[in-house]
# Entry
Amino acid sequence: MKVVECVVRERSLCGESPLWDVETQCVYWTDINGFAIRRLCPATGEVKSWKFDAPVTALALTSMDGWLVAAVGGRLLFWTAEGDRRVEFVAVERDWPKHRLNDGAADAAGNFWVGSMRNNVAADGSEMKAEGLTGSLYRVTPDGDVSVRDSEFGIANTVVWSPDGATFYCGCTIRNVIWAYDFVVNGAKSEAQNRRVFVEKLGEGLPDGSAMDEEGFVWNCRWGGGCILRISPAGEVVEKIPMPVSNITNCAFGGADGRTLFVTTASMGAESEKTAGCLFAMQVPVRGTGVEKFRISPEWVARLAGRA
# Structure
């Protein structure tokens, strides 16, 4: 049985988007309703937080060391912890604040894929009701071109690729489904097509964020299910990892050997659970695939470096 350790006891309202940075050996994550990015450096135990003006929902490494791309409200911005520098990049969800961005990640071609949903976060961070299948799946290219690649999402969650990059997984929490798509990369271009059901209505809560291991298995966090499910490429649940809280939001592989699974959780709606909203970690027998980086265009490299 895997030993689940609470590694950051300071609670997030809705922890999300854990991201391991190999260069710094630190894990970043967000607090959606807390409008924050947070970072833990396991070697020192240091935890830092940075506040923003809207829900921070997704993070990705970039091709420029030290810089991340962050989904904030309805837009993407470039951010670095060094000096807390923030540079606006592009508006993605143009119906903000009625809709907001949610889960997202970079693909092998250097594009950023991010889903959206009806905004359920008020200006003060409190929770609002979100209904309807009005969210979209967007692809954002390095030059800032935004296009809708799929639609009719209630809450777009899970943005991961198979180890060979040929299959893309994305789901809808409200529909209780994760879909698989054929994924084609041709140079700087990428496309998801031929959507079909990967898993649906599994019964252990609802699907939230996911991570991919090197064997091609999806580790799906279950909102309201108190567990993580390891799912084979054939869509078979091969393992259920119980968690000490109810609302499991997302996970990411990291650590020195890539075998530490970092897990974010939410305290909203589970205030009576002592460690709800904390960051957890566990050692697992398989490595993650690692994550791709958003490719910053030469023009934006110059801007971020202060040369333009």
